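Assemble and predict.
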Amino acid sequence: MRDDEGSGEVLSDEELVERGRAGDDAALSELVERHHAAAYRVAFSMLQEDDAAQDVVQDAFIKAFRALAGFRGEASFRTWILTIAGNEARSALRRRGRRRETALEDAGPVRSQQKPPDMEAVDAQEAAWARKMMETLPEKQKLSVALRIEEGLSFKEIGEIIGSSEGAARVNYFHGIRRLRELLQ
Amino acid sequence: MSNMKCETVREWVPDYVSGRLARLDDTSVRSHLKACDECRAEVELARLIFESRVDVPDGLANRVRDAVRYDRTSVSRPWWGITAAAVAALALGIGFSSDRPEQSESAIPGYAYELDDENLWLSDDGLIAGAPALDALSDEALLQFLDELDVGGAGGSA
């Protein structure tokens, strides 16, 4: 997002929120651009269904922007939107009434781009297996691992999203990692 | 092995595998990994997880933007109905009980979102991991966590 003067300054989320409150659609659009991917991955990790996850992301942003006036900024916008997405996905799960058994072939497409530049390619089957094992983790562990590694969130942010303290988020992360290590051995 | 401690490296592993680590720190981690099998295994696992991220569907951002734009420009905003209902309820003297049996479907944290459901977030056994995970906690965060453990002893979990 560039500022109005075209100086090349990238606006912070907080500044975009302020502009969005004032009715700046471009600011809201930029917030969508920045955070829709993480929101999708949170929703998909819980729902394991592409269409449902997309619906969740859409609903989450609509609800967030409707409530923008009441957003007090105690957490970052990123944490806020991911929390809303998580809650929306949870509601969708409730409506569904059961968790879907996830077959390996039902898992989302394995990421094939943006690999760290200095790392060797990971075998696609190995990555798919890791994803399948991720889905076997308890909800909090799975989200703690995913939010920490895939999104780079701090444990404090993760705690806010999963409704726990920073300490509990840490414990969930490390326990999830340990369990994954055992499963993948 | 480099001077960097394993605890520090493991804190940085997610940022290392995703390329978010500053170049200087990245070099330090790389140096440490050359001589530390355990941390290298940790990195390999984190890398596998990062690489297995699901792809985000093309066009999702535009779909969300369109929906947001439609919602913001719609003349039949649902808020009118909600506001009218709230006014009517107040006029009729209907109170809003704090212990009403059905929570609303609102997903907006505000920012204090409610844990309004039984145990989706609270059902795992994540409290038995090792102590090293807590080393980096501040005193305040540690106290908060210990408070949660007390709650857990009374029937819940973190």
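Confidence is low (pLDDT under 50) at residues 94-105, 110-132, 152-158 of chain B.
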